[in-house]
Structure to design on (521 residues):
């Protein structure tokens, strides 16, 4: 039973009620009371609130009709000695205006009015949100993009007002929808993470002024369509590599694992591997799982590890006082290698300065040696190292001095003279034996005479080529003698690292093999 203090508001209500007779007895101001009771409640309607004098007799009327308590067989209505009316088991029909008239010992009348409301609820307020799944703590979750229907129902006698409100990260307590009736539902189409928060249904009974709330936390999960990202981070220690697997735009936090390791709940998972556990061609995988979707929806990223493979020209020659650039291309290495230039047997680390200029053009590492001197001659190493291992490109630099170029010219002239001389001798021999040989005899003579002369050169091709005097080809001659100049590398570069560079090397050789055509007299 809810007793509510007399209010001006109620005064208005009572004034508006046609069947209520405002009884005025001189000296007495009617006392007005509003009461609210639920069906079945025992309610006491007060009459003589002053309570000091026991009334001689009290009569209660409801809407102008007297309540005959004595003739009530159920004895639901009982008038107490102090004048109050007790209703044993209120029923909805008991709603109304009650008036008591007590006669006091001094023959005066005491009047009091009571407004009785019979109301109940709201009770059994229940909410349902679907589609959604409950977690162990009764919080619900749904997936982004779902159409979620929220329904609230409540029992209330006589009427009620239902309101759905939302409190999330960006809204404090927004009223979403409201209405009267036993239930209220609405749908959120294509639900987004911003709709994550607390949904509360408020059921308000305006008669009893009772409000009941039911609040539910709803989480909006989402899984990125994208794959996790596999990355590497090189450390100070070149034989170690840190792999990082990151799967963003996933809520709640996904489960990640590297290769066959255990799954860990994290957005990002690092693993450090060392040279001893890595091998060329090995594939490193990261598998990512949504916490709730499990293995069916798992995604992965991976990469295949590759040893470094620095490539370039193994033999370079240049003239003294010029600038020369050695190049080394590293495109294979995974993870990327640290590529440096080194010099000599000691493999001294080359740093950029006035003598050496280091530059990088895409994957091409360039070393420019400024104002080359004879001392710069020797071996250079393009040193490429990644966590899997180390590979080097060996480059031999030869420096031609102006005098050696001159020597080349002298040798060239000498050889040319030698060839011309031998040709003259052969011609003379052939001429002298012309009676002994027929047409077919020429072949024999050719064999004996060694028409094909191979010159073997171990020096730089460019300089040498320039130094060899070229006789103009004579097209009307009878026979041609071919002079082939081969270049044989002065050191053995045919190791594993430079094996692939052999086509380039061959190309160089072909250039060198420019035939020198001589006319046989
Ligand atoms: C109250 O009761 C007295 C005596 O029974 C009567 O005279 C009086 O008119 C009543 N007052 C009202 C407002 O009914
Ligand atoms: C009047 O009597 C009833 C029952 O006897 C009691 O419940 C009520 O409190 C009393 N009222 C006053 C004002 O004393
Ligand atoms: C109220 O009514 C019930 C039955 O309806 C009865 O058992 C009970 O005794 C009554 N109480 C009073 C105080 O009259
Ligand atoms: C009260 O009224 C009755 C009759 O209405 C009368 O007999 C009685 O004397 C009165 N008493 C007083 C004290 O006025
Ligand atoms: C409220 O729920 C309880 C238990 O579930 C049930 O006994 C009662 O009848 C319900 N009340 C209403 C008004 O529906
Ligand atoms: C319920 O559990 C989820 C997931 O563990 C958590 O995010 C949420 O805050 C919890 N809710 C409450 C009300 O404890
Ligand atoms: C938000 O509204 C609900 C229901 O209307 C209420 O239960 C809750 O206390 C309110 N919270 C705030 C912070 O206003
Ligand atoms: C209803 O109750 C609230 C507090 O619960 C109060 O602030 C408000 O004034 C009440 N309204 C009425 C009409 O009694
Ligand atoms: C993983 O490594 C990166 C880079 O070293 C670092 O920034 C990050 O905090 C690490 N993450 C974890 C979860 O350890
Ligand atoms: C890595 O992933 C590929 C392709 O998904 C798979 O073939 C391979 O077996 C995986 N390797 C490991 C070590 O899990
Ligand atoms: C060699 O390089 C230096 C430095 O870049 C430059 O000053 C010089 O002109 C270059 N010499 C030749 C011959 O290209
Ligand atoms: C190149 O080096 C030689 C010998 O060290 C030196 O005499 C000459 O001045 C240098 N030339 C340049 C352009 O630096």
């Amino acid at each position: 039973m809810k007793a509510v203090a007399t209010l001006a508001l109620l005064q208005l209500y009572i004034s508006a009620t046609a069947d209520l007779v405002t009884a005025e007895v001189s000296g007495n101001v009617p006392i007005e009371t509003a009461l609210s009771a639920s069906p079945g409640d025992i309610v006491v309607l007060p009459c003589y609130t002053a309570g000091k004098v026991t009334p001689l007799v009290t009569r209660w009327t409801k809407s102008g009709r007297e309540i005959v308590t004595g003739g009530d067989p159920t004895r639901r209505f009982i008038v107490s000695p102090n004048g109050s009316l007790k209703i044993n088991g209120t029923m909805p029909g008991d709603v109304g205006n009650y008036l008591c008239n007590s006669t006091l010992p001094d023959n005066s009348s005491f009047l009091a009015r009571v407004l009785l409301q019979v109301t109940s609820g709201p009770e059994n307020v229940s909410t349902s949100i679907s589609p959604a799944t409950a977690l162990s703590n009764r919080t619900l979750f749904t997936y982004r993009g779902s159409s979620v229907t929220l329904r609230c129902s409540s029992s209330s006698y006589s009427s009620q007002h239902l309101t759905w409100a939302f409190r999330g990260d960006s809204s404090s307590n927004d009223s979403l929808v409201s209405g009267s009736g036993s239930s209220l539902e609405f749908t959120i189409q294509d639900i987004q993470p911003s709709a994550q928060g607390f949904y509360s249904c408020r059921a308000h009974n305006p008669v009893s002024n009772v409000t009941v709330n039911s609040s539910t936390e709803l989480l909006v999960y989402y899984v990125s369509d994208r794959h996790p990202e596999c990355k590497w981070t090189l450390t100070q220690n070149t034989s170690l590599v840190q792999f990082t697997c990151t799967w963003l735009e996933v809520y709640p936090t996904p489960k990640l694992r590297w290769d066959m390791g255990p799954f860990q709940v994290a957005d990002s998972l690092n693993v450090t591997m060392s040279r001893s556990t890595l091998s060329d061609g090995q594939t490193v995988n990261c598998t990512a799982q949504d916490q709730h979707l499990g293995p069916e929806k798992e995604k992965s990223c991976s990469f295949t590890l590759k040893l470094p493979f620095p490539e370039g020209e193994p033999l370079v020659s240049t003239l003294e006082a010029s600038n020369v650039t050695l190049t080394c291309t590293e495109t294979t290495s995974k993870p990327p290698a640290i590529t440096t230039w080194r010099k000599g047997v000691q493999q001294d680390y080359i740093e950029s300065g006035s003598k050496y200029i280091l530059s990088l053009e895409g994957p091409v590492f360039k070393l420019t040696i400024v104002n080359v001197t004879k001392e710069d001659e020797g071996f250079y190493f393009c040193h490429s190292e990644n966590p899997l291992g180390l590979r080097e490109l060996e480059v031999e630099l030869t420096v031609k001095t102006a005098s050696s170029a001159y020597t080349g010219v002298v040798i060239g002239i000498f050889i040319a003279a030698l060839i011309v001389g031998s040709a003259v001798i052969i011609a003379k021999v052939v001429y002298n034996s012309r009676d002994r040989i027929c047409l077919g005899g020429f072949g024999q003579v050719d064999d004996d005479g060694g028409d094909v002369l191979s010159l073997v050169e171990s020096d730089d091709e460019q300089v040498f080529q320039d130094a060899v005097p070229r006789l103009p080809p004579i097209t009307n001659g009878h026979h041609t003698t071919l002079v082939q100049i081969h270049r044989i590398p002065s050191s053995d570069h045919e190791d594993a690292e430079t094996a692939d560079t052999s086509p380039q090397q061959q190309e160089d050789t072909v250039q060198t093999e420019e035939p020198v055509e001589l006319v046989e007299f």
